[in-house]
Amino acid sequence: MRKEKSKDINYLVKPLLNEKFFLGENVIWDHNRSLLLWTDIEGKTFNSCSENGLNYKKIKLNEKLCSFGLTRQNKIIAAFEKGLFICDLNLNIIKKIFDFNKNNKNIRLNDGKCDTFGRFIVGGYNETGNVNTKIISLNSNLNISNLINKIGCTNSIEFSNCGNYFYYSDSFFKHIYKCNYDNKQGKILRSKIFVKLKNNEGFPDGSCIDNDHGLWNAQYNGSCVQEFKEDGSYGNKIYIPCPQVTCVCIGGKNLDVVFITTAKENWTSELDKKYPLAGSIFYAKLNLFSNAKGRKINMFDDKLINYSKVIE
Question: Considering the chain, what percentage of its residues have pLDDT values greater than 70?
């Protein structure tokens, strides 16, 4: 583990692309196509490239794509700001599933991820700071159920390798929670605070888990990705040369590269001079920080959908 220096930090990450993003988020590794995928929520784009940054592709969208997952029939389950949709791999809508707080302009969907059983779990974000939105679960029958009924800003959604623990955070309170999770029923059994971030740390944003049970958490306004061990103790830290660190995943063909998205929200020219790499997507070999590797992502179970008969 590398020690932090008071003035100079030897950053071990590098920008993957020359592109900058307003709010890069939900970065995942598509192991079937060997592609890195992520969204720029505020820039309204869906992005992809190879693990070395080649074959970069940007798809412009009409509304904010807040999070997404892959499906077992090679489609995308997409959480746009006001609803859930099944889309093709180019984000063309195939089927609308659910409207989310359609009449409240201050609430939108936010972080989401699939559990090991094939459900898509996604939570809301109230931009006014009120704690009155929720985390919902979508199953293979396309039925919605509520998991958490009072949350302000959902982030850090992740599942343990065995599927029996569910992680999430409410970024407003700087807590990451760990829940006993009935994977077969898709229900939370017990919940406890896993980590309380300190006052001098950032806010918990997107997370991923490695094959050694370490939870890697991007810290917004914390300039880092912090690893937490299975028991909640602090592990390794990846320093990032800009403050708004938003999401992290472990990918690449050998599941040995860490990819990190960042943002430039409420940005100024002065901040641009201070943090010229802000908004970049960064990468590094994971073995610079850990002996662990990544794991293949969970996928949404869409086996009951006959796409040849779906017409929107």
Answer: 96
